Amino acid sequence: MSAVLQKPKTFKLRTLHSQKKFGVAGRSCQEVLRKGCDKFQLPAAGCRLCLYEDGAELSADIFASVPDDTELLLLPAGQAWQGYVSDIGRVLSVFHKPHAGVIQAVRQLLCDERSPLRQRLLADLLHNVSENIAAETRAEDQPWFEGLEARFRSKSSYLRYSCESRIRSYLREVSAYASEVGAGAREEYVRLVGCMGRKLKAARYNSSYFDRGAKASGRLCTPEGWFSCQGPFDGDACGSRHSINPYGNRESRVLFSTWNLDHTLIHVVTRIRTPFLFRAE
To answer: Is 245 helix (H, G, I), strand (E, B) or coil?
Structure first.
């Protein structure tokens, strides 16, 4: 297909640091770029056009397939754009911590947004930005502790308890499985499970895995409390890049209790492969 069209295509064009948009029409990528540079008084050398949606550069190869009225950014040399995710990043960069201004800005973006995908991302951002991740004690974030016993005075102490409870539960499942093992191997199975149980008890059931305050070698999260899914036990990684921070708010804490971490813990809890310890859903 020819890079020059008979009928001009129309675009909405703006620059990175301006919200003002201008309508530009052209029969080729080069024509739109030239008109844009003239409009914004930018030197054509080094400038390029990219799609606001995902940051893809507008080239002659895809020019004909781009719908009319698509929003474009005109980028001088040295500037980069990664799509609407960059817009979200710019909103957050204005503030150093959760702030009413952030929430207001995101709500305004969401109100004006029409793309379902961007609506979803902004809605998720609105939820996450109101989290009180940095808070640690009950006094700092009382809603986080709703429904928990008064003995838990910090988020880390509860999550240590949560991790220990999970591993104790897994160990009980493994112990109960002894009746299913053949008579010839049952004695050895019981011996191995007993050995595993003693090692876990000596390590306090590795309760530090959920504690963001623990040493890096003893936890599965970042110092801020973020856990990242590492994929299924038979895969190398999680293609969806799932992540969660149970330290953020009560909803995230409760949701985290349903996460199946077998793909991580199957290797880390005892440093040996024991697939029956953690049942994959």
So the answer is: coil
Which single residue is written with the structure tokens 């947004």? 113
3-state secondary structure of 176: helix
Query: Distances from the Cα of 225 to the Cαs of 156, 187, 214, in angstroms?
Result: 9, 41, 11
| Positive or negative torsion for Cα 121, 126, 129, 130 | negative
Q: Quote the longest CA-to-CA distance of the chain.
A: 85
Tell me if the pTM is above 0.90.
no
Tokens matching residue 183 = 């008579």
Specify the pLDDT at position 252.
87
Specify whether the CB–CB gap between 172 and 161 falls below 8 A: no
Length of the chain, in residues: 281
Distances (CA, A) of 163 to 93, 156, 211, 257: 34, 10, 9, 9
Structure tokens at 150: 């008064």
Query: Amino acid letter at 21?
Result: K
Confidence of residue 1 (pLDDT cuts 50, 70, 90): very low
Cα atoms found within 13 Å of the Cα of residue 55, Cβ hemisphere only:
9
Q: Around 225, how many Cα atoms within 13 Å sit in the side-chain half-sphere?
A: 21
Residue 227: the pLDDT is 85
If phi > 0 it is left, if psi is from -120 to 50 it is alpha, else beta; for residue 189 that is: alpha
Pick from 260, 261, 259, 249: nearest CA to 147 = 249
